């Protein structure tokens, strides 16, 4: 029989879900920016994204000629660190929901496959809401006794 979340953990689960959803969108967006940056850098055009240099606020400059802030490197570093935050959110939600380990791995893959974090977030949010509704349902149903219906 699979484990179910504890009723006492419902407030913590709601908070963990909100934190997970935010981190999923941030990580997914940064991953898409990272893919775009990689296309610029490793395609035949060999460009990097420069922020605030002599070529304007944001400019594509030849690879290795960045004079100001290298936004390409910034995106890479930001995605890496925020993926760690995403994994923490994944672990917190997974442990509170008491899911099997395979689901943890599925959610973790959302941060490394482009567009997948948005899809995984949608289905995980739906699943959490469904499981919480099942968990809270027995507590909200009232038991009617024959004496109560005869009044």
Any overview of this molecule?
There is one protein chain. This protein is mostly helical and 151 residues long. The protein has one domain (15-134). It has 5 helices and 3 strands. It has a 3-stranded antiparallel sheet with strand order 2-1-3. A hairpin with a 2-residue loop joins strand 1 and strand 2 (56-62). Helix 1 packs antiparallel against helix 2. The longest helix has 33 residues, at 10-42. It starts with 9 loop residues before the first helix and ends with a helix. The model has no long low-confidence stretch (mean pLDDT 91).
Give the gist of this structure.
By secondary structure, the chain is mostly helical.
Within the largest sheet, what's the order of strands? Answer: 2-1-3
Uncertain stretches of 5 or more adjacent residues: none
Fraction of residues in helices?
55-70%
Discrete helix count: 5
Beta-strand proportion:
5-15%
Number of strands: 3
Distance between the termini: 41 Å
Q: What value does the average pLDDT take? A: 91
As for the number of domains, it is: 1
Rg measurement, Å: 23 Å
Overall shape: it is: elongated
* Helix-strand category: mainly alpha
**Major sheet, described briefly?**
3 strands, antiparallel
Pattern of helices and strands: HEEEHHHH
Task: List the keywords.
single chain, 151 residues, mainly alpha, 3-stranded antiparallel β-sheet, 5 helices, 3 strands, 65% helix, elongated
Write the layout of secondary structure elements.
Layout: H1 10-42, E1 47-53, E2 56-62, E3 69-70, H2 71-97, H3 101-109, H4 116-140, H5 146-149
Antiparallel strand pairs: 1-2, 1-3
Subcellular location: Cell membrane
Membrane topology: Multi-pass membrane protein
Pfam family, one: DUF3817
């Amino acid at each position: 029989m699979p484990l179910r979340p504890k009723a006492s953990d419902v407030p913590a689960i709601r908070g963990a879900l909100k934190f997970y959803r935010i981190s999923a969108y941030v990580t997914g967006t940064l991953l898409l920016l990272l893919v775009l940056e990689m296309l610029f850098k490793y395609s035949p055009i060999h460009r990097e994204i420069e922020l605030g240099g002599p070529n304007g606020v944001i400019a594509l400059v030849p690879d290795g000629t960045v004079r100001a802030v290298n936004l390409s490197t910034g995106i890479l570093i930001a995605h890496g660190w925020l993926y760690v935050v995403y994994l923490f959110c994944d672990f917190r939600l997974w442990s509170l929901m008491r899911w099997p380990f395979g689901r943890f791995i599925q959610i973790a893959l959302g941060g490394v496959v482009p567009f997948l974090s948005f899809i995984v977030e949608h289905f995980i949010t739906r699943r959490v809401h469904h499981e919480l509704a099942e968990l809270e349902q027995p507590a909200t149903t009232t038991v009617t006794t024959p004496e109560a219906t005869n009044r």
